[in-house]
Description:
- The complex is a heterodimer of chains A (658) and B (140).
- Chain A has 658 residues and is α/β, with parallel strands linked by helices.
- Chain A has five domains: 4-126, 3-Layer(aba) Sandwich (Rossmann fold); 142-234 and 316-331 and 498-564, FAD/NAD(P)-binding domain; 248-304, no CATH class; 334-495, FAD/NAD(P)-binding domain (3-Layer(bba) Sandwich), CATH 3.50.50.60; 576-642, Alpha-Beta Plaits, CATH 3.30.70.20.
- In chain A, a hairpin with an 8-residue loop joins strand 13 and strand 14 (267-269).
- The two termini of chain A are 23 Å apart.
- Chain B has one domain (9-130): Rossmann fold (3-Layer(aba) Sandwich), CATH 3.40.50.
- In chain B, strands 2-1-3-4 form a four-stranded parallel β-sheet, sandwiched between helices.
- The two termini of chain B are 20 Å apart.
- Chains A and B meet through helix 3, helix 4, helix 5, helix 14 and helix 17 of A and helix 1, strand 2, helix 2 and helix 3 of B.
Amino acid sequence: MIRVGVFVCWCGSNIAGTVDVGKVAEEAARIPGVVHVEQNKYTCSDPGQDSIRKAIKEHRLDRVVVAACSPRMHENTFRKCAASAGLNPYLVEMANIREHCSWVHSDMSVSTPKAVDIVRRAVAKVKRCVPLHPSTIPVEKRALVIGGGIAGIQAALDIAEAGYDVTVVEREPTIGGRMAQLDKTFPTLDCSSCILTPKMVDAASHPGIRILTYAEVEEISGYVGNFEVRVRKRARSVDEARCTACGICILKCPTSRDSEFNMGLGTRKAIYMPFPQAVPNKPTIDREICRHFTAGKCGICQKVCPSGAVDFSQEDQVLTEKFGAVVAATGATQFSVEVYGEYGYGRYPDVITGLELERLISSTGPTDGKIRRPSDGKIPKTVVFIKCVGSRDENKGYPYCSKACCMYTAKHAILLKEKIPSASAYVFYMDVRAGGKDYEEFYKRSQEMGTRYVRGRVSRIYPLDGKLIVQGEDTLLGERVEVEADLVVLAAAMVPQPDAPEMARKLGISYNQYGFFSEAHPKLRPVETNTAGVFLAGTCQGPKDIPETVAQASAAAAKVISLFAKSELSTNPNVASVDESLCSGCLWCSNVCPYKAIEEKIITERAGKETVTRTVASVNTGLCQGCGACTVACRDGAMNLLGFTNEQILAEVEALCL
Amino acid sequence: MSLDWQPKIVGFTCNWCSYAGADLAGTSRMSYPASVRIIRVPCSGRINPVFVIRAFQRGADGVLVAGCHPGDCHYSTGNMYARRRFLIARRFMEYLGMDPARLEIHWISASEGQKFQEVIKNMTDRIHAMGPNRKMREIL
């Protein structure tokens, strides 16, 4: 005889506010098989869980239904609770009467019967639950970090410091990422390179860290603890072991193109290092423009190289390796500001983006740290900054706040005043968002230094006599404003990498409507994803500044370390299972299995007086992830999914259609 | 058909995208008609057309099948199988004499709480216009 206990949660007023919990409990008590019903203010709290444990013992419950929040929220909590009372944790089912009921309906006369239906469904399912036991799998204690920016570097260093091997895959020829392009960082104005490059070197020289640059992740298969990853290391055309980084090849190379690192404000050669402090400090040949590859001529770099390191015949290397955990630290990019035709970016050379200004300020930049406007090299006297370019704009850009722009614009204004004390700065803004330690003070400082903040949007920019006329409105004064500027800086929003959805598919994780990777829970699981073993760090998850990125990277590293601290992982027991007596051995199931978890097995059995040998399907429970595709493919109904069996789902259907 | 008749819709949602999308609609307090009752399955590839037919047999006025967007399946290919299966299941419904318009398939990601809300609203309106699913009750 099955004895179900139903625990209906008030969740404070979250459920009880719109659902008549008493009525739900009353109706639940009438469902066949239910022997005990209880209400709790907060079932997930300590006293709430205690009452479940107590009831399991007192009423000899062998099934538990918790009518509360989403199973994605607290299923684990209540499974553990049941286990501590000696009940198999897989005999617990949740009825989601909060997210799917009380929070979306305000009329108690419709939400209460719906909640009853939901409880009835859960009882129908739980009655057909059977005890399940997870098995264990070994963990490959090596981590893969995708992306070698500050997030990836920090995560790699933290994981390696704990004693585990880390591989960093970076698609550019050097690690460093966006932070390497910055001149100074807010709110302390310490030099970006001075704090980043030592970390880059630490990572490169750490015995536990292997860095693969100019490399991309092509495919990820497997599951937590046992990912198999294919990495393509593109041909650098330079033997890294032989190269001494003397740089003669770069000096002599006759071909050049706009430098990506300098945001197109300077040039670089076909054989190049993105910046002098690059790690690894070895040049790379850009085969797209190198004359040896485009025209079959040249070869100067090979001739001048004193150590014979230039190797035109080098080929891409494809590595396939096993990792136990993956940290995605693929970063973000800059919004394409050309969309704003009224600002004239692309038409007027003196309209630049924040990152371009960053390169102009930097002493390693194309102007050696002197702020000169791109058109004629003159030192600007009046600079206009426009914030929220691409962010907080549903029409042309994205609705979200890009978060770091307010502060970097304040920083740019301060740096401008430091470099050119006579210059004047105007900032057109919608709001100033300076939440963060010492941020408000920093913004105030930029104001005290004479930066004029004008609240309002710029409507038009046009050139006149070598100046840019910026027209806008001061919405606080209700007046039109016109500024004769020498340079206009657009605070472009941080946007996801264009190939972020593709990367998310490789990782098997979800992403939001913009392309930022989704965390498992926005508050309580901010660095985990819904795919076990894949963690997030940095701006691939959403716009962030450096301190936040570093904090998240360390958090992701901590998650990896705690995963590796266990010698074995327990697997999800909700796996496919074959009823051999029904299986005809057609193996259609193995065709649809994405994990190659179904193999054929030969069994011998008695049929009457004879012994027959036949083929049946067999599930490798270590590989099976429990998607259930095979159960539908099975023509005999021999394949079932434990925890979501055909009988359970049909019983749920019947309970709902009463 | 009384004015306050509320259709009964059985929704099969995958755990990773559409169930989470419904959760998000909840956490964002996006209200929608109380017509839908959700059954959680790991993947839309787990939804056997038999479950859908059974729901109609037992008097559901509509059935929603919802999974991750094609290409975004947590198990990489499950929703592709679902897509094919339910194309055929619709034809099978026609063959059985059921109205295939009562079965709707939608792709709702974990971040699309609003889409979930819209799907339920619109689907409820459509099913409401079709009226109760008497046919199966009469057959039985």
